[in-house]
Amino acid sequence: MVFFFFTCGEHTFTSRLKGYEDVTVQCMNCGNVSAHVFKRWQWFTLCFVPIIPFSFKPYHEVGCHICRFFQDIKYRPDVEANHGQIPMNGYGAQHPAGAAAAAAPPEQHQYK
Ligand SMILES: [Zn+2]
User: Which superkingdom (predicted)?
Assistant: First the structure.
């Protein structure tokens, strides 16, 4: 006996924005240099299979993994302005304050 469940929902794909993989910027919410640039794309799902994208273009957001704060990249002109101009390689590794903050558990959750 086979049952069919038609379950509607949504699925959000999140990945690092291409070209920004090595970019680490300051979080405007908690102040830590721990935010990365993400591409977020929401899809309508049927039976857990993504069928239709909610938007034609993915959102580009700056997200902080410490306080879970996300904001649209259009509010961060500094991120796009700095992109490709400041060498960020090795910066995170030589940043003990940032490493300690990254190891700390998130104390607050903030969802948009
Ligand atoms: Zn933060």
Answer: Eukaryota
